[in-house]
Structure formats: C-alpha cells, structure tokens
Design brief:
About 35% of the residues lie in helices and about 15% in strands. A 6-stranded parallel beta sheet has the order 3-2-1-4-5-6. A 3-stranded antiparallel beta sheet has the order 7-8-9, with helices on one face. The chain has a two-stranded antiparallel sheet with strand order 10-11. α8 packs across α9. It is elongated. The two termini are about 25 Å apart. One of its GO terms (molecular function) is CoA-transferase activity. Keywords: Transferase.
Length: about 400
C-alpha cells in the first residue's frame, strides 16, 4: 500500500494514489482536482489514447482541451483487453487508494475491473464510476455527453431567448460540475475510510449533475401546475446590456445595489417609484425600466462603466477568455501558471481553484504526453525492466 504519512506542504491528499481510467472531461478533471490537493494521479489510457487527445485544436501537437483537463498527472498506456495489460493494472490497483472510470455500466465487469472484482484485490479501494445516466433505469447503457444531458434536462430550453429555439451552454458546464462532484465524493469516501478502514464504490452521473445544477428550478409544489415558467432570472435589469462600446453584465437585485445603479446612471427617479421597489416588481416592469437603462448606458463604454460602478454595483464588461492570461485579478490570485510540455513546449494555463494555507499542495505541472511515464510508474509498482519489456513486446504496453 502507498505511504500515507503526512507530508508537510504537499497538500491535504498527499500520500493518496489515484488511478484515472476515465476519458473526456468529467472524470479526468475530477482527478485533476484531486491532484491539485496533492494526490498522485496516474492517468491510464488505452492504446488509442484518451478521445479528448483527438479533438479539434489549433495546437498541432496536442489537443488544447486535453492539456487543460489533465494537468498534474503521470501518463501510462495499457491495453486492458490483453491479459498482460489487465494483470499490470491489477498490480497498480493493489497499491492504489482510488480508481475513477467512465465506462458504461456493463463494461467494467467485462474488462475484469468491476467493483467486486477490484474490491477482492484491495478492500480499501475507493471506486468511482462516472456515468451518463446512472447504473439503473432504461438509459443506463446509453452513452451520455454534456450537451446531450443539457438538452434532455431542460437547460437548453431555459437558456433560449423568448420565441427562439433552445441554446447550448458552451463550456462543458455539466462535465465540469460533475468533476467537482467526483472530487468531493472521493474526498468524502477517503475521509470515511479513515474511520472504517474500508473502501466503497460511488457514482456520479451527468444526469444527476445536470439536475443538481438546476435545483433552484426543479421545485414543483403540490398546489401548482407542473407546466409553468421556472425561470430564476431577475428580469431585464439583471443581465447583459449594450453600452456605447461593448456589453456589460449588471446585477442589481439588492436594494443598495439597485439604488447605486440608479444613482450612477442618472436614473435616481426610479429608486423612489413604488412600482420598482422590489426585484419582482422590477421584473414585471422591465419594459419600462430597460429602455431608460439602455439609453443611459450609451454614455460610456463597458470598460468605463466598470470604473464608474466600481464596488457599488456588481458588473463586468464582456471579455474574451484569452484576456484572463494577463488580467490583474487573475495574476494577483496566481490563477495562471506557465507549464513545460515535452511535445507542445511552453504554455500558460489555469492552475487550481482551491487554496490551502497549511498544506498548499505541489506546484501543478503539464498534462502528460501519451504513455510518457509508463516505464517509471511500472518500475515504482515493482515491475522489472524485463517484465516491462515483455509487456511492450506483446503490445500490452504501447
């Protein structure tokens, strides 16, 4: 078993070994979040590699999405369909704390890596399955993807403008939320294991993630019809508005933010109008308020309004994501780091979202090149150079 002794400065999950067999975004980024907290994450890919490696990208040598989702991992390639490849994985399982995969429910047992099969080898293993729809029900064996679940669960319909068709929320929001649930659930299971000494299986589905994201809408009281408008947006005031140059998001739900917005746009007469003294009333009268607001906003650009509103009104000028590379707030928070990749070379990317003061965790490093760490990881697991060479000769180790 891995050394679980406390390592100062190495992160709250120092000493934990995670086997990441998942692909695409939800499972892999969940494992990256564990790596951010100090876990040693070994990404195990099939001979064809993670499918995300092959996604369209303006980078020639590697997929931009793969780099962003798989930082701070060690890369191993194994063919689990060959007996020797499976046996090698089981050797790693015996020494691991966590295994994460996103196979459909029928696949793991067929491969020989179902929970019961691995629990017999390592009873302390935390086994996390990331599925599209869960492991029960009529859709359990259907492939699930972020935007498929967005569309199924009403997110795209809610995103649509009045009278317009449903719209996708780009950015893989369901996948990334599922990744957060993976990291949280695995961490909780590890905490419980400290008490019981036993591992367990757990599951996060894209379906449950998409519904969890809509908890504010997914309420149906006994005395109301099911088919009703569950839009939680605050009407036409809170939202994105045009300015003289660029667009600006404004949030003015609380009384003091609403007053500050009116004062700084010269619409102070709206504050004393009883028709507009609550969020609900302002939403009902948005057709009266928004034209006046838009006319006022034409006096300055979006960036100028940011300065004018300052801390008094929550707002943001609409920017491109690449502007975050040199954004003063992002730099002050050390959210952007420089990485060195053996194929891509030097690049900048996001570091990590959570900050720990006493156990900050190791510095993040670049996503692995395909199979780059196979030799070293297998040696550390106890395999000899001759054994590794035989695996390569048989094609079990690409």
């Amino acid at each position: 078993m891995p050394d679980t002794a406390y390592s100062p400065g190495k992160g709250p999950l120092a000493g934990i070994t995670v086997l990441d067999l998942s692909a695409y975004i939800a499972g892999p980024y969940g494992c990256t979040l564990l790596a951010d907290q100090g876990a040693r994450v070994i990404k195990i890919e099939p001979p064809t590699g993670d499918n995300l490696r092959h996604y369209p990208s303006t980078l020639d040598a590697e997929s931009r999405a793969f780099l962003g989702v798989n930082r701070s991992k060690h890369g191993v390639a194994l063919d689990l369909k060959q007996p020797e490849g499976l046996a090698t994985l089981l050797t790693l399982v015996d020494q691991a704390d966590v295994l994460v995969h996103n196979f459909r429910p029928l696949v793991p047992e067929r491969l020989g890596i179902g929970y019961d099969q691995l629990n017999a080898i390592n009873p302390r293993l935390i086994y996390c399955a990331v599925t599209g729809y869960g492991s029960r029900g009529p859709l359990r064996n259907k492939a699930g993807y972020d935007q498929v679940l967005q569309t199924m669960t009403g997110m795209c319909t809610a995103q649509a403008k009045p009278g317009a068709p449903p719209e996708i929320l780009y950015g893989s929001v369901v996948d990334f939320y599922a990744a957060s649930l993976v990291a949280g659930a695995v961490s909780s299971a590890l905490y419980e294991r400290e008490r019981s000494g036993l591992g367990q299986s757990l599951e996060v589905s894209l379906l449950s993630s998409a519904l969890a994201m809509q908890s504010t809408r997914l309420i149906w009281a006994a005395n109301e019809p099911r088919a009703l408008d569950r839009d939680m947006r605050s009407g036409g005031i809170t939202g994105i508005h045009p300015t003289r140059s660029g667009h600006l998001y404004l949030s003015a739900n609380t009384p003091h933010f609403w007053q500050a917005l009116c004062e700084r746009t010269g619409l102070i007469h709206l504050v004393t109008d009883p028709r507009f003294d609550t969020v609900r009333k302002r939403a009902e009268h948005r057709d009266l308020i928004v034209p006046q607001l838009h006319e006022a906003l034409t006096r300055h650009s979006a960036l100028e309004w940011e300065e004018i509103f300052g801390d008094a009104v929550p707002c943001a000028a609409a920017r491109q994501v690449d502007e975050m590379f040199d954004d003063p707030q992002c730099l002050a928070e050390h959210l952007i780091a420089e990485f060195e990749h053996p194929v891509v070379g030097r690049y900048q990317g996001f570091t990590r979202a959570a900050r720990f003061t006493r156990t900050p965790g190791p510095a993040p490093f670049a996503a692995p090149a395909f199979g780059a760490d196979s030799q070293r990881v297998l040696r550390e697991a106890g395999l000899s150079d001759d054994q590794i060479a035989r695996l390569r000769a048989k094609g079990a180790l690409p």
